[in-house]
Task: inverse folding
DNA sequence: CCTACCGATCGGTAGG
DNA sequence: CCTACCGATCGGTAGG
């Protein structure tokens, strides 16, 4: 009978290795070695290598939902709500960079059922963002001459790319990054005193 | 002696498969099968599987440079220059989605030498963007109370994420996407008639 | 949790 | 460009 703690260790070692080398370049023996075990010994705790991938992705998806859903359904003013959501989303990524990297990078290697569940959850998550944005548009906080769909894509793209370049100990804290990103996205990059010739 | 046309076919088939399944999940036999060849026959044209990955990444890097460098060194007004650069960068991604996907996703599996060259080229490319942004800031076109470094990251993040969601035949053309992204980034998401309470 | 092993598949080569 | 093969490594299992 597997005891939970050991399994958590295995999941975390797997997340670290999958994020560094990718799912397929990491062997079950690599994961076992990181815990000073023999390759076959892992199977006392897990059913398959794919189960590990699924558990990592599942957990990460949960982190995103736990961070954003309470905000989304709250009655905080829509601009403050979005500001906090940006901070929260970025926090999930920076708090467990390995898990986030696997979430964004390796989900394609899930079994078909797990992959479908993943895609479904991701769609739901994006809908939370679209709803917050539409709410802010209707409150007159965000401009209503843009499509909330592409606003959401822009926001999430800028944030999600973070796992490519963020490293702990860099010049900016997660909070400072979130602050700057939100400010630039909200206020725009254009100088307020300059009339730019956009078509 | 390999003749060039066949090699191009091999590279393109490899780019397609690498982008769909990833580098390590695609076998040399898969690539050969896509061209109705036997696995071993590829080695009349290539030296190794890694060479294929390198050629795909190399080509993609060249596309980005060819699209942006002439703009960067031109004396087009800085705002128009950036607008065109956004269009050009997005065009490179959408014009060869498979190559762009491999470029962003699979470069980690390059040999050490190739990986170092890749990282060097990417740094140079990002510097082109930083220089264009700094130029626009100094011309008073972009706000000078933000760091050009993070402006560049924001711009490139939003654009680079495109390969995750863009599919040909979608509702927006590459030009329409570029237009919207540039407009949203430049003008900001905030409603012009609303005073948002940012700290 | 280990030892010892399974069949399958991999990238790459020899020889034609 | 094909056939036939190489050693290495893979995920997973049996039996203890």
Result:
């Amino acid at each position: 009978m597997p005891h939970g703690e050991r399994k958590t260790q295995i999941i975390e070692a797997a997340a670290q290795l999958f994020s560094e080398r990718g799912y397929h370049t990491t062997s079950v023996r690599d994961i076992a070695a990181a815990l000073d075990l023999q390759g076959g010994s892992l199977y006392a705790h897990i059913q398959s290598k794919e189960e590990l991938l699924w558990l990592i992705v599942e957990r990460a998806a949960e982190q995103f939902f736990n961070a954003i859903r309470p905000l989304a359904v709250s009655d905080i003013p829509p601009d403050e709500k979005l500001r906090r959501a940006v901070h929260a989303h970025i926090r999930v990524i920076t708090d467990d960079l390995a898990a986030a990297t696997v979430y964004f990078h390796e989900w394609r290697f899930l079994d078909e059922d797990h992959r479908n569940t993943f895609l479904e959850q991701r769609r739901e998550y994006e809908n939370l963002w679209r709803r917050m944005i539409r709410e802010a548009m209707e409150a007159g906080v965000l401009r209503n001459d843009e499509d909330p769909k592409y606003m959401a894509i822009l926001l999430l793209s800028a944030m999600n790319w973070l796992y490519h370049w963020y490293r702990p100990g860099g010049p900016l804290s997660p909070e400072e990054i979130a602050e700057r990103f939100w400010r630039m996205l909200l206020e725009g990059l254009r100088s307020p005193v300059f009339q730019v010739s956009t078509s």
User: Anything to note?
Assistant: Residues 37-38, 40-42, 44 of chain B lie near DNA strand D (CB under 10 Å from a C1'). Chain B touches chain A through 54 residues (CB under 8 Å).
